[in-house]
From TrEMBL:
This is GMP synthase [glutamine-hydrolyzing]. Its EC number is 6.3.5.2. The gene is guaA. It catalyses: XMP + L-glutamine + ATP + H2O = GMP + L-glutamate + AMP + diphosphate + 2 H(+). It comes from Rubrobacter xylanophilus. Homodimer.
Amino acid sequence: MIVVLDFGGQYAQLIARRVREARVFSELLPHDTPVEEIRRKDPEGIILSGGPNSVYEEGAPRVDPALFELGVPVLGICYGMQLMALMLGGEVRAVQIREYGRSELEVMEHGKLFSGTPDEQTVWTSHGDAVLAAPPGFRVTARTPSVPILAFEEPSRGLYGVQFHPEVRHTEYGMEILKNFLFEACGCAPEWTPVNIVTEAVERIRRQVGDARAICALSGGVDSATAAMLVHRAIGENLTCVFVDHGLLRQNEAEQVVEAFRREAGLPLVHVDARERFLDRLAGVTDPEAKRKIVGEEFIRVFEEQAREIEDARFLVQGTLYSDVIESGTRDAARIKSHHNVGGLPEVMDLELVEPLRNLFKDEVRVVAAELGMPERLVWRQPFPGPGLAIRIIGEVTAERLEILRRADAVLQDEIRAAGYYRRLWQSFAVLPAVQSVGVMGDARTYAYPIVIRAVTSDDAMTADWARLPYDLLERISNRIINEVPGVNRVALDITSKPPGTIEWE
Ligand SMILES: Nc1ncnc2c1ncn2[C@@H]1O[C@H](COP(=O)(O)OP(=O)(O)OP(=O)(O)O)[C@@H](O)[C@H]1O
Ligand SMILES: O=c1[nH]c(=O)c2[nH+]cn([C@@H]3O[C@H](COP(=O)(O)O)[C@@H](O)[C@H]3O)c2[nH]1
Ligand SMILES: NC(=O)CC[C@H](N)C(=O)O
Ligand SMILES: [Mg+2]
């Protein structure tokens, strides 16, 4: 087995998942797990994750130096590499030119880690610090145009470091590099087999809920639909689904979701019209975290009210994924944004949560959904965030802005689908920043909002790249939005990857 030590990196759980995908068992442990405890697990290798801190800062998390003397190979990733460098006599500093997102890596020496991979490859990075001098005895194996030490190794001591992230999908040869560590450096054998997620989840839900009743927060997205199906398998008739229209949905979305679900799923569904109360509570609010907390709390209050209508309904099923959990912040991981269903939950709640997908990423959920026989259209539906358009209006949410954004988004969706791009994109949507700019339309001056087009590719939302949409498609979207949506006089395109951007603007 492989121990992954968590320094609070966004991708720490993803490292453990990738190792398991290579059919080696792997466990994520806090970085301050005592070395003795790690030794008792008898790992064949140890991976140090990335993290938000800078290794040279006072109080930054470290490891017991004995870890490097266990005779077990160690791979440091990003913060993990920087920590290894610093603790073993190298030098780490903040760099002038930071790297976030795509970088072109040049392999200088293939060594063990890059064995069998090309001399030049695209990697995904996310760092503001870098190793300026490798520790004595280490060989530098890769660089990028701006960072001279992007990977190093000291195979005779079993020590390896990469400044980029082999665990994310956008790193072209990431899986090969991880496999080289597992199979060449650690000598692991690909023998571990995963447990069946569906069987395991259904049993776990049965144990948790027993004979009580549950309601499921159902959004029309693939996560909550999959969670609902799993819970339905476990407790059958004792499940009622609740769909909340909070007034932050897209054009005609409520009708479409309710209609499709009633037609296809055959589970009882309650449709709650909560538009007024959400919009009332959001009035005057501009801070993104405040919006998220309001939406998170209000959702729960609606669900509590609905549960009171059903005898012995003590559980709330949500389609929470691991990406929602990590971005909301953990003991070691920074809070990037409070997802409404995790970090946005109120402190006091009447209902106990049932979250069968909490440890999974979206691409794993899509596999489960397909296994459960869900329609393709639902399996490949683009994600839509629970707080909806509230986090796509940058500034205060007003009825007027919601209407503008809805209409612009409908045009964008229409064109994306017509061009055959819907399935190829992770998400495509419109954002309305509440700033105004000057334009000229029909020889008259305008002073109106811009609409920003955001379209990205991703597998799991942990990293994303901006989609290279054809110019003629962008032109049609831009023309139609300006011509058809009053209140908009400019269209812009967001060309930021994640990192450094996130997919949503708030
Ligand atoms: N309008 C809504 N009504 C009821 N529950 C909701 C609503 N929006 C979100 N939720 C709950 O919040 C959870 C998280 O939302 P999220 O958008 O991440 O998942 P999803 O909507 O199920 O899938 P997707 O990510 O594909 O949109 C959902 O799984 C669902 O339980
Ligand atoms: O249900 C949700 N509640 C939320 O509060 C929330 N915030 C972001 N998202 C979705 O999560 C994915 C990653 O988002 P970001 O790159 O913007 O952090 C993307 O798919 C986002 O659309 C949310 N989903
Ligand atoms: N992704 C990481 O591990 C980042 C490490 C460190 N915080 C940096 O900025 O360089
Ligand atoms: Mg959703």
